[in-house]
Structures are given as structure tokens and as C-alpha cells.
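Ticket #4471: structure output looks truncated?

Reporter: J.K.
Steps to reproduce: submitted the chain below (224 residues) through the standard prediction queue, then opened the result file.
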Amino acid sequence: MNFSDIFKKGFLSSYTSENISVPHITAVLLITAAIAAYIFIVYRLITKKTFYSKNFNIALAGIAVVTAGIILAVQSSIVISLGMVGALSIVRFRTAIKEPMDLCFLFWSIAVGICCGAHMTEVAVVLSLVLTVLVIVLDRLPVGRAPMILVANLSDSKEEPALTEKVGKYCKYYKVKSRNLAMGQCNLVMEVRAAKEYEMMQELEALSGVESVSLVSHDGEVTF
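Returned output as attached by the reporter:
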């Protein structure tokens, strides 16, 4: 045995942990699954999207368990860890994350899997509790109120100043977002923040030249 063989043997043995038993693997994955189920419930309760994606929520729980399994496999040998890095480096994800909150839950799920797989379950539990409190508190914090969308159809475009005057009577903030003219008619879309929405709608409907008027709420950006 030459110096090169001794160096390779010593180098690889320093990165090789003791064998992981089946009961140990089962316990780690079950603990990860329990925390992943907690993430599943929190995401379902907190998300306010119009279209709730159950498949994405299930994927969050699955990612935590899969990540824990990968960390357990990487701990067994440096050879496996290098092979895992090479295998995962060719994976490309094409699905775009459109909601920032979904990205937060995705990283939360991955972090739980890494912590549980690395035998740091306490970190995963404390992280989950702190992040839950943080998300709930910030979500209920009254930072601002989203404006309403007012849609009005006018039979005569010359009646727009009268409608705008009525809107200004009830709204401290209003802004024209879209104005479509066709054959003397006008379709007006405004962003408004009204204190007395019902009274405003009644007066707008009573205006001459107003065929229909609608007020729609949305969960988009908040205008201060």
C-alpha cells in the first residue's frame, strides 16, 4: 500500500458516517412528515388566493420529506453526496412561482427537510413556530387597504365629468385606469377608495347617461 492509497482511504473514511439503520430512517421521515403536515395546514389557512392550488400544497409536504431523504443519503458517504450533486445539477424547473407567499412556503419546506435530515429537529420545530407567528402577525397588520375598482358604462361620453364629480364627492382618492370610447359611448374603469360605497353607487346609477355601474374588490397592490 503506497502513500496514495493511504491518503485516499483516510480521506474517504473521514467523510463516511456510521451506517444508518432502518428505524432511524423511519423516525426521521415520520418526524419530517409531521412537520410537513403542519406546513400543509398553515398554508391552507393563511393563503387568500382566489384559486387555491391543492396540488402545490401537497407538493410542499412532499418536498420536505424528499429533502430529508436526500440529506440522509448524503450523510452516508462523500461518494454518494458528489453523485447526488451531479444528478441534481441537471434538473431544471420550468414552473414559475407567481405568488411571493408561495416562494416563502417553498423555502420553509426545504429548510424543514434539511434540518430534519441533518438531525436538527429542534431547529425545524422552532423555525416553523416562529415563521407561523411572523406570517400571521404581518398578515393581520393594518398596513393599508386595497382600493376598489369602479366600472361604469355611459351611453354618452360627455357625461363623464358629471360622474367624476360624484365620485370625487365620496372618494378622497380616485384614479382613471382605463377609458374606452366607441360610437359616442364610454366605458370607464376607475380605482377608488370610498367611505360610503352604497350611497355612492346609488347616486351614480341615478345620473343620466349611466347605463350600468359596478364596484369590484381585489387583493392586488395597495395604493397609499
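Triage note (M.O.): checked the attachment and the full C-alpha cell line is present. The two ends are 75 Å apart (CA to CA).
Status: closed, working as intended.
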